[in-house]
Amino acid sequence: INFLKKRWIIGLLKVIILSACGYFIFSKVAERSISIENISLPENFYSVLFIVVLLMPLNWFLEAYRWKLSISEFEEIDIKTSIKTILSGLALNWFLPFTSGDLIARVSSQKDKYQTTSAAVLNRALMMTFTLIFGIYGFSFLAEDVVLSTWFIAPLLVFLLIVAWFSKKLVDRFLIYFRKLSNRSIFQLISISLIRYLIFVLQFFLILHSFLSELSFELLLAGIGWIFFARSIFPLFFGGVGVREASGIFFFENHVNDLMLVFIPIFIIWIINTVLPS
């Protein structure tokens, strides 16, 4: 009964967030946007789109290889199985909060649940570290607003408290994995995680820059960092649609005249990196 209640609360929260993001997006676009029929694609759009689409399978292959490497200390799997596991988790994330579908897919596919959970937590922690660092950089462009500062810091503190609580709850069976992990493996996992994150950033930057070429390199990177951070702290619905677009419009609304030029590239990235592989 308690489990069902928690799922009901999370489901309601997801619907509320999706509805709030939808309202925010459409109200802002209605205020400051020309008709979508009057928006012309950038001259280099198709060449940029081609590069971004090519990077998508490379990115998910690296994630599959990272997962294969992270559990190789206690259980060997082939790259094909690893790819299936990763893409299954991506599909499950459409229905489960906080990308927990990814964790469920990984843990359910391996025999040793304790060490698999530890490996999944390590993988998530590495990507979240880059997300936080880059998110703080993005926030630095918005920090003049005291209210916004509070809005940003509050969920960050909640996240850190959850991590601290989870660390205290770890039992010895989970810690075995970290004791066995070699320094070489840790270095490889960090390196692959960084490369994956940079690929995500490059994809996003190429698409955004093609539509918003008048904005500076630094501002576009800050906006990307902000969007990635927002996507990571909210319970997502339908693969995260709505949260990315709303956070992007929130960040760039004072820097662009037509907010559809923010919405369209973010939506395209969601199609390429989430919908297609799912």
Helix content: over 70%
> Could you report the average pLDDT, rounded to the nearest whole number?
78
Number of strands: 0
Structural class: mainly alpha
Write down the oligomeric state: single chain
Residue ranges: pLDDT <50 for 5 or more in a row?
A: none
Proportion of β residues?
under 5%
Q: Helix-strand pattern, N to C?
A: HHHHHHHHHHH
Task: Please give a structural write-up.
This protein has 278 residues and is an all-alpha fold. 76% of the residues lie in helices and 0% in strands. The longest helix is centred in the N-terminal third of the chain and has 30 residues, at 2-31. The radius of gyration is 19 Å and the shape is globular.
Task: Write out key terms for the chains shown.
278 residues, mainly alpha, globular
Task: Put the structure in a nutshell.
Helices cover 76% and strands 0% of the residues. It has 278 residues and is an all-alpha fold.
Question: How would the blueprint of this fold be written?
Answer:
Elements: H1 2-31, H2 45-71, H3 79-92, H4 100-108, H5 113-139, H6 146-169, H7 172-180, H8 183-211, H9 217-233, H10 243-252, H11 260-275
Helix pairs in contact: 1-10, 2-3, 2-5, 2-8, 3-4, 4-5, 5-7, 5-8, 5-9, 8-9, 8-11, 9-10, 10-11
